[in-house]
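How a chain folds remains the central question behind the approach discussed here. The record that follows shows the chain in one-letter code together with its fold in token form:
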Amino acid sequence: MDFLSLYVTLKLAAATTAVLLTLAAPVAYALAYLRFPGKSLFEALIYLPMALPPTVMGFYLILAMGPRGFAGRAWETLTGGSLLFTFLGITLACMVYSIPFAVQPMKAAFQKIDPRLLDNASVLGLSRLATFFRVVLPNSTSGIIAAAVLVFLHSIGAFGVLIMVGGSVPGVTKVASIAVYEAVEAMDYRTAGLMSLCFLPISFGFLLLVNRLSGVSKYGT
């Protein structure tokens, strides 16, 4: 059993979830409540990773993070190092790949808030920022948790994007999905089976949590 790859997987999923929820919340708020030019185009770009094959997404990320890409060139200028084949690189790739799973549940939760709460906040003179933190977020707990669960699960199951951006560096970018693939290639079905088995209780438990949250949101119980 490759416990090191399991550790890298959980570390990646935790980092991706924590950072992505923080960044995706204001995006979801803007899509739920604001009107601005190009909103439809912006929303389509946010959801684009759901439509693209993972290897295609990985290819474009390689171009962006490589020595000639805007992100890779900027990072190399700042640090002298490369984004490709690093933990930071696969974290950024996983964030881009998972952003629809963070934005969509939060946007849906924000849109379900009673408009009277927002009207009252406006009457009381709260700014949009204050309304976001004091009204929107506290009344969208189930959607935020659902987004966190979906991002976490999506991150631990990522494969195509990660193997293209990060390769398979043990202890750095080699996640469990890549370890399973390599074990199958080596015809080591015992290791592949044991590692695959680790995913079942995690995924099943988190999906039960999402279903429970959906039930609470729908029926208020």
In short: The domain at 3-216 is CATH 1.10.3720.10 (MetI-like fold). The two ends are 42 Å apart (CA to CA).
